[in-house]
Amino acid sequence: MSKRAVIVIDLQNEYTPAGKLPLTGIEAAVANAARVIDDARAKGIAIIHVRHEFAHGEKPAFTPGTDGVLIQPEVAPREGEPVVIKNHVNAFRETPLQRLLDEQNVRELVVVGAMSHMCVDAAVRAAADLGYAVTVLHDACATLDLEFGGVTVPAAQVHAAMMAALGFAYATIRSTDEYLSA
């Protein structure tokens, strides 16, 4: 069996209802992610937290030094759990994430986090391209409504489309309950 790690992507204060980019369903996603993290801690499975910051404050969110960049308390890292700071959508781009995984001989990733259509998507595709077996826990991820061509696409549809796309060729898509009961 391959060594596994849980990757917790961007479950930061910026995505809460009080943040600058509130996500639909973020509370449920964080609650499920917390269950997965607790399970990983109990089983000695590696956990790597990813935190987004815009390096030069060039965007109106994820500004270094603000409360918005902090990881939500329910899923906050404990001592010894690495936190990868990223300045791009893809958690592997210009970060030590792959090195951390390779140093621990990790070959399987379980991904939870935000946003489904951006940072989760980018990390999952990159991980699969790098040869990792990836499982995404769909109910431990969240996103928001998007707009294209004057049409608002509800968050539930954005999320479903992303999970369907990732499940087609990049990852196994499971619920938190399915994962925890396996």
TrEMBL record:
Keyword terms: Hydrolase
GO MF annotation: an example: hydrolase activity
Domain spans labelled Isochorismatase-like: 5-147
Keyword Hydrolase: yes
Gene3D superfamilies in UniProt: Isochorismatase-like (3.40.50.850)
Pfam families in the cross-refs: Isochorismatase (PF00857)
PANTHER family linked: ISOCHORISMATASE HYDROLASE, PEROXYUREIDOACRYLATE/UREIDOACRYLATE AMIDOHYDROLASE-RELATED
Name used for this protein in its record: Cysteine hydrolase
Taxonomic classification: Bacteria, Pseudomonadati, Pseudomonadota, Gammaproteobacteria, Pseudomonadales
